[in-house]
Amino acid sequence: GIVMTVASISGFVMNITAFSYFKTMRARNNNNKFFKRLYMVISFTDILICTSFIPVIETTFSTDRSGALFGNTVFCSGWGVFWYTAYQISIIMVSTLSISRFLVI
Length: 105
Known about the structure:
Largest sheet: none
Oligomer: single chain
Radius of gyration: 17 Å
Shape: elongated
Number of strands: 0
């Protein structure tokens, strides 16, 4: 639980920093605008993933290992959909970044 807490907090802080950097960065042309926006979407998705660890962290510190949030079936179902969607978007965005970088080269 402690490792997950440290990783989540540091990931959150670093992705907020990255998002802020790319938001203030000036784009000189359309190619730069595309990559700037892509990096912003990746950072924002990672921020959402880091915040989605909060219920999992809470569960690791609870005595019965079910936690206050995962005991609720509605929350559990919604969190599952959110988690699946967030990491799929992250995979798609990183793949898009890799393909677009390959095409630019």
